[in-house]
Amino acid sequence: MRSDLSHHSPLTPSAARRALRLRLKPRESAVGLLDGGWWPHTGCLAVELPPLLELLAVRLGPIGRVVFNPEAFRPAPRRVLAGGWPVVLRRSATLDPAMVLVLGRAGGGLRLLVVPPSVAEEAGRRVLLRAAGRENIDSPAELLAPRAWLRLVVPRQRQG
């Protein structure tokens, strides 16, 4: 019997040891299409989503649903467990493949850029920082364009 609740996998222990690569815009930032960026270590939603959703629940409350493009993640379960609760995964062929929508049970949600797992370390960090920039209005395509990875992210200077 195959279960739609994927919470155990041979990859789970190693995934749990890896740092979650996530950057979010400040709550008060309301510009742009994206609320931040997520850089999974693999393309396996069953492994990658539970730690992400547990962290995002701090901001959104319990997570009810994740919407993704099925072209970006294959295979994908119908549900995952996060924080002991089932979260429904919905496929949407119209959603940009470089995005996921994370929706809270009580309302609210986050639109996250998904940086491909194969992106080089320095480039991935740069893309995450840009996606989560307070004034970022770039689209997923603009953020993931190879020329965008070459731009330096310059931290703001502290005001005296």
What does the model show?
Helices cover about 25% and strands about 25% of the residues. The chain has about 160 residues and is an alpha/beta fold. It has an eight-stranded mixed β-sheet with strand order 1-5-6-4-7-8-3-2. Strand 5 (about 80) and strand 6 form a beta hairpin. The protein is globular. The model is unreliable at about 1-15 and about 150-160 (pLDDT under 50).
Quick overview of this protein structure:
By secondary structure, this protein is α/β, with parallel strands linked by helices.
Question: Which blocks of ≥5 consecutive residues have pLDDT under 50?
Answer: 1-13, 152-160
Q: In whole angstroms, how far apart are the ends?
A: 63 Å
Proportion of residues in helical segments: 25-40%
Largest sheet data? 8 strands, mixed
Number of DSSP E strands: 8
Q: Quick one: overall form?
A: globular
Q: Could you tell me the mean pLDDT?
A: 84
Number of helices: 5
Strand content: 15-25%
Write down the secondary-structure element order. EHEEHEEEEEHHH
CA-based gyration radius:
16 Å
Classify the secondary structure makeup into a structural class. alpha/beta
* Spatial strand sequence of the major β-sheet: 1-5-6-4-7-8-3-2
Which characteristics define this entry?
160 residues, alpha/beta, eight-stranded mixed sheet, 5 helices, 26% helix, disordered N terminus, disordered C terminus
Secondary structure layout:
Layout lengths: L4 E2 L5 H6 L4 E3 L11 E3 L6 H16 L2 E6 L10 E4 L2 E7 L7 E6 L4 E6 L6 H11 L8 H5 L1 H4 L11
Parallel strand pairs: 1-5, 3-8, 4-6
Antiparallel strand pairs: 2-3, 4-7, 5-6, 7-8
